Amino acid sequence: MQSLLNEIYNDVKPMLGQGKVAGYIPALASVDPAQFGIAICDNAGEVTSVGEADTPFSIQSISKLFNLVMAMNHYGEGLWDRVGCEPSGLPFNSLVQLEYESGIPRNPFINAGALVVSDMNESRFASPHLAMRDFVRRLSANDSIFSNSDVADSEYEHRSRNAAMAYLMKAYHNFDNEVEDVLHNYFYNCAVEMSCKDLARSMNFLANRGHCVFSASDVLNKDETRQVNALLATSGLYDEAGRFAFKVGLPGKSGVGGGIVAVVPGRFSLCVWSPALNEMGNSVLGVAALESLTRRINWSVY
Question: Which CATH superfamily is domain 2-297 in?
Answer without folding.
Answer: DD-peptidase/beta-lactamase superfamily (3.40.710.10)
